[in-house]
Amino acid sequence: RCRIKDAARASCSRVYVASTVKLFIDGKFVESKSSEWLDIHNPATNEVISRVPKATQEEMLAAVDSCSRAFHSWSETSILSRQQIFLRYQQLIKDNIKELAKSITLEQGKTLADAEGDVFRGLQVVEHACSITSLMLGETLPSITKDMDTYTYRLPIGVCAGITPFNFPAMIPLWMFPMGMVCGNTYLLKPSERVPTCAMLLAKMLQDAGAPDGTLNVIHGQHAAVNFICDHPAIKAISFVGSNQAGEYIYERGSKNGKRVQSNMGAKNHGVVMPDANKENTLNQLVGAAFGAAGQRCMALSTAILVGEARHWLPELVERAKALRVNAGDQAGADVGPLISPQARDRVCSLIQSGVDEGAQLLLDGRNVKVKGYENGNFVGPTIISNVTPGMKCYKEEIFGPVLIVLEADSLDDAIHLVNNNPYGNGTAIFTTNGAAARKYSHEVDVGQVGVNVPIPVPLPMFSFTGSRGSFRGDTNFYGKQGIQFYTQIKTITSQWKAEDATLKSPAVTMPT
Ligand code: NAD
């Protein structure tokens, strides 16, 4: 039963007040027959707002069978018809952006403005998917020999599956099924069990946009659902975004079963601050990128390296972080919302304590923050730890909370050395007014996404999301040209049309030269 409280209910819209999250199988939103259910909490209050099932084996089989059946007709549907569906879809998402954002804030906790950004960045991928008619073009080479031409088709691969994390309930599902489906694949989505409602709203909108039954199926669950996806032979490709623990496991298990797997994982993103940087701009960017979304972004700038004299900027950094308002995400003026769960909060607090125990300096401590009216929420206020060294636990682990750790370096070379010795390679940024320093950093740093005076350099969808090293497993990245490659295979056709008088007179038994 839905035990949502009046205050939270008032900020809900009609769709997600439902007491249980449905499965989406073969075009129908159905109640699971599972005996195992998980509670979904509002992170600002810890009240239970609904329940999500762990789908049964029969339900998961029904979902993948539906994808397999739909693939026959969907893959043969004209590319222009598929494009039209996604053109309608992007409009529906735009029309419902506020409703989607509310569902995100309720289940995930981020502020409403940030939740709209979550939808918007996913919407951009849907918009890009609408260019599919040029993205899917093959190649041709006429006259490779007399009367012979070679050309390629880019074709779908079959049933694809997506497994998503809690921190971007709209953007990350939208990195996956629109790209996969517009290429002609059918799609099985397993959203994060902690924030499933936004994915269900997105599934409903896709159905309303005209996607035929079975082209998208949604199941829910945890490990059993993930193992099912890794093992089912009809599933040809898996897109995963989440932690290293899950991502490396899924990459290995899925690959062993002969599937394509792309796995975007954890991060430790460094912001290198040169003493010549524009101070005002840099400090604001650092604070926004470290504490926005309560630090629960894979591209959060969680680690600052202050080079040379920039070390004197610390007191001002602390003042700006202190000024951020911690509050429930649906409250006006909130800058920093709650963490996803009490366990996440405890973990973040213990990592802060580990820094103190290992000799770092706690310049700003957000552990005892009190939010009036939301005393049971999972809040941690902005926290800054300085004098951190690479051997400390708070440096080695992804904190995934509103915590900025600060290291110092004497030179740009020292800073690059530090960043390149960290196992993760998701994102990084340099703040400087010196073009030569910016160029040197961009070229020498071994990280997949680099910002120059841009704190969170997430590429737009005409490019790809190119996290590297410990932040990625696979060889083809999400969205952009690489996303199309991931969701397609190439067929190469060599054809000869000879005039009659050029007919072979005897069998050709040697390789053609
Ligand atoms: P998570 O790994 O706990 O969960 C992600 C998905 O995997 C969920 O659907 C979950 O059900 C499943 N899962 C969880 N544990 C599993 C296990 N042991 N075996 C199999 N499946 C499992 O991640 P999360 O906490 O939801 O998300 C936060 C993490 O995601 C952070 O590490 C963050 O950096 C990362 N992330 C990375 C990117 C990126 O693009 N690199 C983007 C967003 C988030």
From TrEMBL:
Record Gene3D superfamilies: Aldehyde Dehydrogenase, Chain A, domain 1, Aldehyde Dehydrogenase, Chain A, domain 2
GO BP annotations, alphabetical order: L-valine catabolic process; thymine catabolic process
PROSITE patterns: ALDEHYDE_DEHYDR_CYS
GO cellular component: mitochondrion
Keyword NAD annotated: yes
Keywords tagged on the record: NAD, Oxidoreductase
Name of a matching Pfam family: Aldedh
InterPro entries noted in UniProt: Ald_DH/histidinol_DH, Ald_DH_C, Ald_DH_CS_CYS, Ald_DH_N, Aldehyde_DH_dom, MeMal-semiAld_DH
Enzyme class name: oxidoreductase
All residue ranges annotated as the Aldehyde dehydrogenase domain in the record: 29-493
Superkingdom per UniProt: Eukaryota
UniProt KW Chloroplast keyword: no
CDD domains (alphabetical): ALDH_F6_MMSDH
Catalytic reaction list: 2-methyl-3-oxopropanoate + NAD(+) + CoA + H2O = propanoyl-CoA + hydrogencarbonate + NADH + H(+); (R)-2-methyl-3-oxopropanoate + NAD(+) + CoA + H2O = propanoyl-CoA + hydrogencarbonate + NADH + H(+); (S)-2-methyl-3-oxopropanoate + NAD(+) + CoA + H2O = propanoyl-CoA + hydrogencarbonate + NADH + H(+); 3-oxopropanoate + NAD(+) + CoA + H2O = hydrogencarbonate + acetyl-CoA + NADH + H(+)
Function as written in the Swiss-Prot or TrEMBL entry: Malonate and methylmalonate semialdehyde dehydrogenase involved in the catabolism of valine, thymine, and compounds catabolized by way of beta-alanine, including uracil and cytidine.
Family: Belongs to the aldehyde dehydrogenase family.
Protein name per the record: Methylmalonate-semialdehyde/malonate-semialdehyde dehydrogenase [acylating], mitochondrial
Origin organism lineage: Eukaryota, Metazoa, Chordata, Craniata, Vertebrata
